[in-house]
Design a protein that fits this description.
D-Maltodextrin-Binding Protein, domain 2; 2 domains; three-stranded antiparallel sheet; globular; transport; Sugar-binding secreted protein; signal; SBP
Length: 420
């Protein structure tokens, strides 16, 4: 999930207390810090602080034990702390040299982490691991503007559609307009990570073809006004509900809506509550000015990185690579149903019956664009959230949607210029 940059202006005292002085342990003799998978066979002691979300703490402990068994020459003192993938960059920025040695992060933070000198380039061996395991979209998600790879993906990070199969057929869910006629749909329109799906589908571009050209800026395209008018009409539709704070999950399970949009992180809960009634599909089409377009979600990854400021670079880089390994991804699926990014892991127990697995794969392949990771992307989040909220509150309406769209585009362009 994307990081909320408008809140990333500093840390509270409580969060500051969470950030241990990580990079202060170890007698690691390796100095490359490039994720070398060879390293020395001599016994080495290291203290590693590892950041991950609360839900992954048991998995991290299991992987730390497995890593030590696989590398008996490493004597590691582990210091785990709870920091979500979406909060990694804002937690790092207080003091990159004192941040975790190894951390999990959402790839949209890559540009900021690079600017902070808080993320290490992987070695050639690990870069090959990343390429062998992942589809090109996910490889690009951890590739910097310099063409080098930073971080090892362990799952895709995108969103798609969940629905109740008792309400919608597989044909119905191909088109959003059909769905809004037949049932109730929740969508997080006021969330700046989700609102661009309509505009991207109708021709918006962000920072060039690869999302790395800051000078290219964000181009709303010729259809932006028409898309806004479509969203004005959608908000007025009684079958539409704005999904705030992931309320869509409970609304779908309780039956107050028949479909909502989220990612693989909700799959396990939904399967428990809906069972065979749960369906999932890639992004649907919608019609603007008589022409069908397909919604396109942001695509990225959740990945593991090591901090180049660590005093234990060999161990840290090797452990980061291990957390993205086939073994670790398999265990992640078994423990938490986290869908592997490893394209070779397609037949793990339960995957064939998991609707989110197929939907995420189709989304990454067909109905998504790589989310830009450059720092200039920070210019998008606040204006997009503000515009989405204005749509939901009907401050953007049929009388003013053209001017409001232009004002939004101008605001984004101004912020992009300031960021570049």
């Amino acid at each position: 999930m994307m990081i909320n940059w408008k809140k990333a202006v500093g840390l509270t005292a409580a969060v500051a207390m969470l950030v241990p002085m990580a990079a202060c342990g170890g007698n690691d003799n390796a100095a490359s810090g490039t994720g070398s998978s060879s390293g020395s066979n001599e016994s080495q002691e290291a203290t590693l602080t590892v950041w991950g979300p609360e839900q992954d703490q048991d998995w991290l402990k299991a992987m730390e034990e497995a890593f030590e068994k696989a590398n008996p020459n490493y004597k590691v003192t582990w210091k785990n702390a709870t920091v979500s993938e979406g909060d990694a960059a804002k937690t790092v920025q207080t003091d990159p040299s004192a941040a975790a040695d190894v951390y999990m992060f959402a790839n949209d933070q890559l540009g900021t982490l690079q600017n902070l000198n808080a993320i290490g380039e992987v070695s050639e061996d690990v870069a090959q691991q990343v390429k062998d395991q992942n589809a090109e979209t996910l490889v690009q998600s951890v590739t910097g503007t310099d063409g080098k790879i930073y971080g090892v993906p362990y799952t895709g990070n995108t969103y798609f559609m969940y629905y109740n199969k008792d309400k919608f057929s597989e044909e119905d869910v191909k088109n959003l307009d059909t769905m809004l006629e037949k049932g109730k749909v929740a969508y997080p329109l006021s969330d700046s990570w989700y609102i661009p799906a309509f505009y991207l589908g109708a021709g918006m571009t962000m920072f060039g073809a690869n999302g790395t050209d800051a000078a290219a800026g964000i181009k709303f395209g010729d259809n932006a006004d028409a898309v806004t008018k479509y969203l004005v009409d959608m908000v007025a539709n009684p079958n539409f509900t704005n999904d705030e704070n992931n309320a869509g999950l409970s609304m779908l399970t309780e039956g107050s809506v028949d479909a909502y949009f989220s990612g693989s992180w909700d799959s396990a809960d939904l399967k428990k509550k809906l069972g065979d009634k749960l369906g999932a599909a890639e992004m649907p089409a919608f019609k603007v000015d008589g022409k069908n377009y397909t919604m396109k979600s942001f695509a990225g990854s959740k990945a593991v990185a090591f901090n180049p400021n660590t005093k234990a670079p060999e161990v840290a880089s090797k452990f980061a690579a291990y957390l993205g390994s086939e073994e670790a991804q398999t265990k992640h699926w078994e423990m938490r149903q986290i869908i592997p990014s490893d394209k070779n892991l397609t037949d793990l127990d339960g995957m064939a019956d998991d609707p989110a697995v197929k939907a995420q794969a189709a989304t990454l392949e067909k109905t998504s664009v790589v989310q830009p990771t450059i720092a200039a992307m920070n210019a998008w989040w606040t204006p997009a959230e503000t515009f989405g909220k204005a749509l939901v509150s009907k401050d953007v309406n049929a009388d003013n949607y053209q001017q409001k769209t232009q004002d939004w585009a101008d605001s984004v362009a101004k912020d992009v210029k300031a960021q570049s």
